[in-house]
Each structure stands twice: as C-alpha cells, then as structure tokens.
Amino acid sequence: MTDPRQTIDVDVIGAPAFAIAVRGEDFVYTAINRRLSDVAGITPQSFVGNRPHDCLPGPIADHLLNHYRICVETRSAVEFQDVYALPGGTQWWQTTVTPVFDAGHGEIVSLIGVASDITARKQAEQAERETSARLSLVMDVLEGGFWHLDLATQVFDASPKLTRIVAAADRPASSWAEYLALVHPDDVGLADVTPLVLGRTEDMLTEYRVVSRSGRIIWLQCKRRLLRTEFNRPDSIIGVVVDISEQKRVQAILRRQAMTDSLTRLYNRRGFEDCATLYAAKARADGLGFGVVLVDLDYFKPVNDRHGHAIGDAVLREVARRLAMQVRASDIVSRMGGDEFAILVADVTDEAIPRLAERIVRAVEVPIETPAGPVSIGASVGCARTFDPDVELSELLARADRALYDIKDSGRGAWKIAA
Q: Given 105, 183, 275, 416, which is the most exposed site by the fewest CB atoms within 10 A?
C-alpha cells in the first residue's frame, strides 16, 4: 500500500500538475489540479483512475508513456516538450515528471508531473525560423515571389510578387491545389513537394511551366526549403519563384541555332540525330515505323570548281528549298554536310518513301538559275525504312547509305529502297 507520507497534493502546486500511481508496468492517473484542468480543457473525472490509453489519443498516450518509463528506469526526473491536441486546444507543453519513492523500500510508487504552456514561445521561435529561412532564400535569389505552405493546416500563402508573376491578376492562388492547377499538365511532377513533405530532403530546385489566368505560358524556377519543428518534424515549406521565361526563350534560340545549318537553314547533323531519337520513340509508341532518305547531289563538285563557292552555296540553298517543298509537315529535312542531305519520314505504312524519292530526283534535275547562268545537277537517293522498334538509327542509315551507293555505281540520277 502506498505510504500516505509520500502522497503529494497537486492542488498546492502553483502550476498545471498531475499525479500518477506506478503499479508495476501500469501507470494510472490519480489526480490533476485545477490549473491543468482549466488550461488543457480536461476534467478530473475524465482522467483520475484511468491509464493514459484510456483517456488520451493513442499517439499522445504512447509518447507520454515512453517518458514515464524513462523516468522509472532512470529513477530521475525527465523533462520533455511536445505539442498536444487536447480539448482546450492544440498547445505546446514543457513537462517535468519526477519520481516519488517509497520511504521504506526505495521503490517508485508515483510520479508527479508539472507542466508549462509554452505555446507563445514556440510560435515566436517558429516565426523567427521562418523569417530566417525567408531571408536566406532572398540571399539566394535577389528577386522573385514567395509562397508558404503549412503542412498541418494546408494553408497556402503567396506574395503579391508571385501573384503578379503566376496569376497575372490581383487574386492569388488560395490553396496549394489551386496553385498546382496553374502548372502545365506536363510539368506537374516537377512541382511536386512530396520529398519535402516526407522529410527526405531539405531543399529542392526545379523548373516548370505555369499557364497564367491570362493564358500566357511562363517558365518558373522555384527553390523550395523545408522548415522543421524543434523536434525535427516537417512543419512547413517555403519557396522562392523567379520568372525565367526570357532566359528559356534565349536558350531555345541558341538550341535552334546549334541544331541548324547556317547556309540552308535546315537542320544540321546534330538536329537530324535529335529528331531521329524522337521519331524512333514515336515509332515504338505508335507501331507505324519511320524511314530515312539520303540525298547526294550529282555533278556538284564541278559547279564549285568552275563557278566558285558563292555559286555553289546558292545552288545548295536552292536544293534545300526544293527538298523542303517535297516533304510533308511531319517530315524533317536536314543538311548533313557538303552536298549531302537527309530526310526523316514519319509513318511509312503507305508509299510515302517511294513517292518522295521520285519527287526529289525530278525536282533536283531541273536546272537552277544562278548569277553565273543556269546550273544543272542531279540527285542520287538511297532510302531505308523500318517497323522494328529495336532497329538502331545507325543501322537504318547504313542500309540507306548502301542503297545510295548502289545508285551511284549504276549511273546516278535515280533512287533505291534498301531491302
């Protein structure tokens, strides 16, 4: 039986307090004082005589029992802080649990807990951490819009700058879901913050497109950072957004220039190879196949030798124009170098390639008007096509090249499709 001399009246403690009887592995609340009852919104009747799991939500009970057991095992006071959702509201508490010993045997017979409501302090600390993080991000990005997502409440706040960038209106996105709804459908995965929500990473930098309410497509670069509670739990996410649309426009121009032949304005070899990769992927997805047509000009070298490179360049530009006139919108014409051209042909289920090859031969053999007078050349054409999704582009080009040189060897000015 508990020694009454070891019983402490928690009502005389000038702070929220409670008492727990230690009965082997069990912990039973025996008293709570009026201060704790008033602040936490709980009544003595709902606690006294109950174990933690009888009167508290499971996660809170588990957390408290862990500290109670540590107190008993270490035979010393334990201090801890955490946030609890109780009838009186969600509050931060700092709690000290102290063991009470049996005077005769030195056994722990009860625990006395004294708690302090530290919600205001924690809110101030959190605000300070958020301010610090915002300032840190401002140092990273000198100009841009802010947003803040509270993970517990899902409240989403956007700065006026972000509203102007994204919404192109005075009304900001009122929720995270509404903000994501502005993201281009192909880029929604890039805007995902799940790794931050789960605490797998602290920072993320990504680029994605949004479609503003005015319909304009905007490229954004967004740096996001996770804020944690004092106990290292994910709490909220803040982000800084910068409009990089102009940067992307310049990059696209440079990329096109890198893929374009400066003389003919057709794709160059690099552009051809990039497009061929896309063609192959589409062929695999659609099961329609695709083909390549290689064009080598006949009798072009004498034009350069006789009239000079300026006339030769004029001839190449005219050939490029004529080739572009023969293809469909879905086909790609490129200059591979010198007097060699290549065409990517989409959907080769019909007679598209034979008809194209014949048109090319007839179009190129028509004399070309130049400042030096009419120039006559010709074209030898080698073709290859595939419906096999596993065929490599290099193999397809090799087959078309062999067909081309068969034509060269047999007299030129004609076309052939590789077997």
A: 105
Interval 87-138: pLDDT, tens: 777 888 889 999 998 877 788 999 999 988 888 888 877 777 776 666 556 5
- Beta-strand ranges (E) seen in 118-233 are 145-150, 156-158, 203-211, 217-228
Q: For residues 117 and 241, what is the distance between their CA atoms, to the nearest angstrom?
A: 37
Tell which phi-psi region holds residue 256, choosing left (phi > 0), alpha (psi between -120 and 50) or beta.
Answer: alpha
State the pLDDT confidence band at 393, using cuts at 50, 70 and 90. confident
Q: What is the pLDDT of residues 206-221, one digit of tens each?
A: 999 988 777 888 899 8
Inter-helix orientation angle 352-364/309-326, to 10°: 150
Lowest mean pLDDT among 23-27, 168-172, 292-296: 168-172
Reference 63, options 221, 294, 231; nearest CA is 231
Per the CB < 8 A criterion, the answer to whether 182 and 190 are in contact is: no
Decide: helix, strand or coil at residue 147.
strand
Cα R_g (the chain), whole angstroms: 38
Annotate 343-366 with DSSP letters as a single string: EEEE--SSSHHHHHHHHHHHHHTS
Model confidence at 334: pLDDT above 90: yes
Determine the pLDDT at residue 3.
45
Q: At what angle do helices 269-286 and 393-410 cross, to 10 degrees?
A: 110
| Side-chain-facing half-sphere of 87: CA atoms under 13 Å | 12
Strands 415-417 and 378-386: parallel
Q: What are phi and psi of 26, to 5 degrees?
A: -95, 150
Do 384 and 391 contact (CB within 8 A), yes or no? no
Give, in degrees to the nearest 5, the angle at Cα 343 between 340 and 345: 160
Angle subtended at Cα 18 by Cα 13 and Cα 24, rounded to the nearest 5 degrees: 135
Name every residue whose Cβ is closer than 8 Å to that of residue 334 and which is 6 or more positions away in sequence.
Answer: 261, 266, 267, 268, 269, 271, 272, 275, 341, 342, 343, 344
Q: Which residues in 270-297 are b (16+ Cβ under 10 Å) and which e?
A: ebbbebbeebbeebeeeeebbbbbbbbb
- On whether the CB atoms of residues 209 and 220 are closer than 8 A, the answer is yes
